[in-house]
Design a protein that fits this description.
238 residues, eight-stranded antiparallel barrel, mainly beta, two-stranded antiparallel ribbon
Length: 238
């Protein structure tokens, strides 16, 4: 599956930058409100919170559990015709979780800091709806590298202990999208909605690749960024 997606990305990059007369460059920056599946990590946090609560005999609780958050994107593309555009795209997403307990004697806290940097290609087709309004359908193919930092902090009276473990995963994803676009001269404003389908990636320790992040059923925890994204694009045609 990964080899097939790699070939698709190489093919689209080649087609995108094959010189065609009359091309315009399009640069867009985007801000999305994103939902994330992350089922394995949510379950891992719940299991580990119960385990520590039972081990220390404390009411250890989840404060945050990988909520929806903002994603940021920049793309550079070429117009091959009045209706067809393709190019390169970079996306950054992040979210976090926290489990915490505090009393007069100290504090036990674990922060789960998760981020993903995605690189890939996109292709889209636009249809004129009104004089200054286009409908756009398209899709992105992305290579994702995710990093999870587990920050364990224990404070008992005047003594503290802090431990950080980092895990990473890689995966490919496909994001079909639908947008409505208005424009004035060289400026572009777009309202965009998409759904990312992430093909998961196993989390392994960055320092020791043999160490993985296990979950209760005996398998390895995976990142899964699948979810809806709604946002605004600002662009310029050069």
């Amino acid at each position: 599956m990964n080899k097939l997606l790699q070939k698709l990305i190489i093919s689209i990059v080649f087609i995108t930058y094959y010189p065609i007369y009359g091309q315009n460059y399009i640069i867009k920056v985007s801000n999305y409100y994103s939902t994330f599946s992350l089922a394995d990590l949510k379950n891992y946090q719940k299991e580990y919170t119960v385990q520590l609560g039972n081990g220390y005999n404390i009411p250890y609780k989840i404060v945050d559990n990988f909520p929806s958050f903002f994603s940021y994107q920049i793309s550079v593309g070429l117009e091959h015709s009045e209706n067809l555009e393709s190019g390169l795209v970079f996306n950054y997403s992040s979210t976090a979780a926290r489990s915490d307990y505090q009393d007069y004697s100290g504090n036990l806290r674990i922060d789960y800091l998760l981020s993903s940097s995605s690189y890939g290609v996109y292709s889209e087709y636009s249809i004129s709806l009104l004089t200054f309004l286009n409908g756009v359908i398209g899709s992105k193919i992305l290579y994702n590298r995710s990093v999870l930092a587990l920050n364990n902090k224990l404070i008992i009276f005047n003594e503290s202990e802090n431990q950080i473990n980092k895990y990473e995963s890689t995966s490919f994803s496909v994001s079909p999208y639908l947008a409505f676009e208005t424009f004035y001269k060289c400026l572009i404003l777009r309202f965009n909605t998409e759904y990312m389908i992430d093909f998961n990636g196993e989390l392994v320790n960055i320092k020791n690749k043999k160490n993985q992040l296990p979950i209760r059923n005996g398998s390895v925890a995976k990142t899964n960024w699948s979810g809806f994204r709604i946002g605004i694009d600002f662009g310029i045609r050069l």
